[in-house]
Amino acid sequence: MTALLTITVLVLVAIAIWQMTKIFELSQVRADNSQVATDADNKNNGYLLFAFLIFIYGITIFSFWKYTKFLLPEASSAHGADYDYLMLVSFVIIFFVQTITQALLHYFGYKYRGETGKKALFYADNDRLEFIWTIIPVIVLAGLILWGLYTWTNIMDINEEDDPLIVELYAQQFNWTARYGGEDNVLGEASVRMIDIDRANVLGLDEADPNATDDVIVKELHLPVGRKVNFKMRSQDVLHSAYMPHFRAQMNCVPGMITEFSFTPITTTAEMRLNPDVVDKVKRTNKIRAERAANGQDNSDPWEFDYILLCNKICGKSHYNMQMKIIVETQEEYEKWMESQQTFGQTMASMQ
Ligand SMILES: [Cu+2]
After folding, report:
1. How far is the CA of 218 from the centre of ligand 1 (A)?
2. C-alpha to C-alpha distance for 208 and 188, rounded to whole angstroms
3. Distance, CA 330 to ligand 1 centroid (Å)?
């Protein structure tokens, strides 16, 4: 690494010296005018502009063809479709404007290239033209921003209507823990100051709070399909961000405060595994994994799709591996799973 850095520095110094000698040469008054662009030079540069235009269009088409399959599959939350639509419309507008302006920019660069005898026209301003190119972006951007604000307000309208399931997501370097309110669906009081590792009270629940007794603490998040979930996020140490990409959900987890996000999962894990995009992705991944297995490399077990909660804030050295599996299932499956879990009260009693 040091060798590479040294070489890089030496190369940069050499380039700097070379550039400086060039500047010095140019500053000398000389009869030789080989540095002045001729008509042929300008024409060639004009053609190069077209070549560059073809290059950027080409790379755009290539990226569409090669990388669209890496995009997330259809949203699995009730609000996800609105979010995706807003994003799609924004992208289409940007893409359309970009395609046209690049073509115009490069074409005019060619058309008005330097030529002997050609003189630039002095043209101070044109009110109508300036009005048009100001008002169009203003209308389009104002529309997008208002629509975005409206969508944002709808998504962030976190309330207790429709009997939401209350779930706490607890972030710490470098793992997630989830907590359910239990029978009463009310989370017991908790604070990092009450954490007692020796007694396995890892989330710092208040043992005296009756609401805490039936809380259920888990390392795998199960959600019943079709029921609204209100998440309450806490962090023990640094900034983390709870990111559930398939549900188009993300919220920072901030030490010392509780942040919230709410969504309704609409597709079970089992249904999502049948989604054509997901089937494709699993097939592609397992092909790579099979190759790895054949070469005796790690990470070669066949993979099965699961929803996932990730950390989306660079929170430390193992940030990349901070994740928790999410399983969306039917109400019956969820209840069966919940019954098999120990409550906080039971865990504490077993520690006595
Ligand atoms: Cu993190």
Report:
1. 18
2. 9
3. 30
Q: What is the pLDDT of residues 109-166, one digit of tens each?
A: 999 988 888 888 888 889 999 999 999 999 999 999 999 999 999 999 898 888 999 9
pLDDT at 199 over 80: no
Helix then strand count (H, E) for the chain reads: 9, 10
Centre of ligand 1 from the C-alpha of residue 171, in Å: 7
Q: What is the mean pLDDT of residues 80-94?
A: 94
By CB neighbour count within 10 A (0-12 exposed, 13-18 middle, 19+ buried), where does 338 fall?
Answer: middle
Rounded distance from Cα 46 to ligand 1 centre (Å) = 50
CA 85 vs CA 95, 148, 158, 194: distances in Å: 15, 11, 21, 44
A 10 A CB-CB count for 91 gives 10
Residue 26 C-alpha to ligand 1 middle, in angstroms? 55
Specify the pLDDT at position 213.
Answer: 83
Spacing, Cα 65 to ligand 1 middle (Å): 33
pTM of this prediction? 0.80
DSSP states of 287-332: HHHHHHHHTT-SS-S-----EEEEE-S--STTGGG-EEEEEEE-HH
* Residue 169: burial class (beta carbons within 10 Å; 0-12, 13-18, 19+): buried
pLDDT tier at 346, thresholds 50, 70, 90:
confident
Of residues 186, 228, 190, 232, the one with CA closest to residue 211: 186
Express each pLDDT in 276-288 by its tens digit. 999 999 999 999 9
- Residue 271 C-alpha from the chain's centroid: 24
| Mean pLDDT of the chain, nearest integer | 91
Query: For position 272, what pLDDT does the model report?
Result: 95
Instruction: Report the separation in Å between the CA atom of 244 and the middle of ligand 1, taken as the mean of its atom positions.
Output: 13
Degrees, nearest 5: CA angle 233-194-210: 80
- Dist CA 323 CA 343 (whole Å): 23
